[in-house]
Each structure stands twice: as structure tokens, then as C-alpha cells.
Amino acid sequence: MRNLIGTVILFFHGLAVVFGQTQIEVAPPENIRSVVFQGTNNAAQFPLVQLGEKMTLTFDDLYADEADYYYRIIHCNYDWTPSNLIKNQYLDGLDNQRIIQYDNSLASLQPYTAYRLELPNRFTGFRLSGNYILKIYDNKDQLVFSRRFIIYKNAVGVGGVAKRPRDFDMINTGQRIEFTVNAGDFDLVNPLQEVKVSILQNSNFNTAKHHISPQFISGSQLLYKYEKETSFEGGNEYLNMDTKDIRTATNTVAGVELKNRYHHYLYTNEIRRDKIYTYFPDINGDFRVRLGEGVQNDQNSEADYSFVHFSLDYEPWLGLQDIYVYGKFNNYELLEENKLEFNADNNTLETTLFLKQGFYNFKYVIRNPDGSIDYNAISGNHWETENEYLVLVYYRNFGDMYDSVIGMANISSVNISN
């Protein structure tokens, strides 16, 4: 009997450990490509929507066999651990539904099935704001990939500006975010305990700042005027490549070759770490699937795929470090396929990626031996760089079982000031 009780205790302890784990975004297998998850604001790189607003997930399966995929949704706390809520507390309806919208590719060398999921839909709606994880499963109940999304409500006002850091070490390379949360009629009894803030640069969770408490409280206003706690490296504008005209070279594509699939050979990129800052428009690391000018067909199922050949000038200071092509096209993952290899014949670092027609931002980053990432050693680091910052305000009242998102603000560094 004691052994049975002990086994039961261990079982529930194991469940507690599993359900308390931080929910990370799982990368898809090699047959799943072009994952795009957006809300009503197409400029955002992940869905940030108000309750009731639409968001759309699209992805391609290169096996092109019209496989069945299912979705499940988990509500999370501020730290992305699962909340203690049960499904019917945060969902209006049911999840674990099959994705029923899909099309097979047309007139493309690479066959694929293009899937589309809209949320909320007639099966699944949302009751609460907060952090969420969307998980996609196959018909064998195996997790295929997952993505974050956030639902918010405008209960408080949030506004801020980007400024140059006063810290001498970052004055020429950093950007600092100052902002204010105006609670208005929203009752904050103990904001130091109830309110948490996260800041994302260019919607990238890898470099986000978390657990930022108010620095000052003035009436119903929470003031955040930190120096280091809200400072980011400015980085540099992203590089770009455009394959929308799949048969034609462009200012970023040196040549196009047709074999069993299209091959796009990009111009070799130079290391920009010692270059002065030069502004040119980018989409802050994101990508857009699109076809040539004047094409009115469904781009999601009409666009083709090609092998895109990236190359970077090699310099001796790089040594044998691990260097990757980095961007939203693979959700900022450092995977073996986007790792560069040295080509002694032309003294460049190279890799080839299989990408859908479109416009892509990318940069080159270094993974250090300790696992940390140097995002700007190759690209350069400038305070003038145009970046977008997202401020998210979370709230948990005493006795609540979850963290709600009560406000947000988008802050651009275009008009950064001293």
C-alpha cells in the first residue's frame, strides 16, 4: 500500500513538473515550411490581438499529401509556464480540431499543401487576455511545431519614447526605452506586486527584457525611466533578398539557375562591423511571401520554392566560430541548415536554404562556445538603427489564477533623442 501511495505521489509530482515547464516555440520538421502567424497588423511578426480580433496561421507541407493536422491551445502565465486555468475558463468552444482549410500548390516545381487556420473560428474562441501557445499536431498525435500569440485588452494607457543611453559603454551602440503606464480608472492596489512588463525589440522573444517593475509611482501613473534595465543593442538594418520574380536576377540576386528546382545565388555579403551607419528601409527581420508584380492569384498556393545560396566574406578574426543566417524565416532558430560552412576556394562562408518566393530580411550572427549569441559582431551596432519596440503590460490581482495583458504600446526608434 505504501508503495502504491508513493507511486501515485511521484506520478502527480511528475505531472506538476511537466505542466510547470516553460512553453517554448518548437521548430517544425524539414517538410514544414513558410510558417506565418499574424494578427490584423501585418507589420507584427506574431499575433498580438485584442479579444475578438482575427489571427491567421499559414504553413506549407512539402510532402503534399493533404495530411491531417490538429491544433491545441494552452493559456500561459507571464513567464510562459502554463496557467492553472482549465480549458473552458479561457476558451469559448473547443480546441483539438482538424485544420480544414488547405490548398495544393499550382504551377510550381515544388509541390506542397498550403494550410490555413483562422482564430477565433466557429469551433474555438477566447474568453481571456494573456499569453498563449498554439500547438500543431499530426494524425499520430505527435507535436509538429508551436507558436506564441498574445491577446490583450486596452485597460490602461501606455506611451513611451526611444532615447540614447546615458551609459558610456552603450552611448554609441544602444537604445533605451522610457515609458509610462497610465492606469486611469483601472484600480491598481499594489502595482509593484501586481504589474509586470516585458519589452520586445522587433518582436523577437530571444532578446526580450522581462520582469521590469515600476521605477516611480505618481498617482495613477507608473513611470519607467531606467538606464540599463530597458536598454538594447541598436544593431544594424537587416540585409534583404527578393525572389518574387523567380526567373530574374535583382539587385540582391546575382544569378538564377533552373535545375530540378530554381537556384538563386545572392551577391556575397560583406562584414559591416566597422562600417559607418547607413539607413535603408527594412522590415526588421521579417519576411513576406509574394509573387511578381501584377500577379493577383493566391500567393500562398501559387508561389514556388527555390534554393537560395547565401555567402559571407570570411575574415581571419572569425576563426572557427559558428555563424548562422538569422531571421524570422525560421523563427530566429539556429539550426544546422542555416549554419555557414567555410569554402576555401573563394574564401567565403556559405549555406543554402530552401525558401518560398518572397522578400526576406536576414543577418549573420555568431553562436559563442557558451551557447550565447552575438547578434551584432558581424552586422555592426549603431544607436541610429531603426527598430520597433513592443511594451506589454501584465496584471495579476491578488487571488487571480492567471496573468492578463491590460495594455501595450509600439515605440519606434526613428525619432530617437538624447
> How many helices?
4
Radius of gyration of CA atoms, rounded to a whole number: 23 Å
Give the low-pLDDT segments. 1-18
- Percentage of residues in DSSP E strands: 35-45%
Strand order in the sheet with the most strands? 2-11-10-4-6
Overall number of domains: 3
Tell me about the biggest sheet?
Answer: 5 strands, mixed
Structural class: mainly beta
Briefly note the CATH topology name of the largest domain: Immunoglobulin-like
The pLDDT mean sits at 92
The best one-word shape is: globular
* CATH uppermost class of the largest domain: Mainly Beta
Compute the number of strand runs: 30
Write the CATH architecture name of the largest domain: Sandwich
Helix amount, in percent?
under 10%
> How far is the N terminus from the C terminus?
70 Å
Structural write-up:
The protein is built from 4 helices and 30 strands. The protein folds into 3 domains: 25-152, Immunoglobulin-like (Sandwich), CATH 2.60.40; 157-235 and 384-412, Immunoglobulin-like, CATH 2.60.40; 239-374, Immunoglobulin-like (Sandwich). It has helices at 2-19, 87-90, 191-194, 299-302; strands at residues 32-38, 48-50, 55-61, 69-76, 91-93, 97-98, 101-104, 113-119, 124-126, 130-138, 143-152, 157-163, 174-182, 195-201, 204-212, 216-218, 221-224, 231-233, 239-242, 253-258, 262-266, 287-289, 305-313, 322-326, 341-343, 348-356, 358-367, 373-374, 388-395, 404-412. The longest helix has 18 residues, at 2-19. The radius of gyration is 23 Å and the shape is globular. Mean pLDDT is 92; it is low at 1-18.
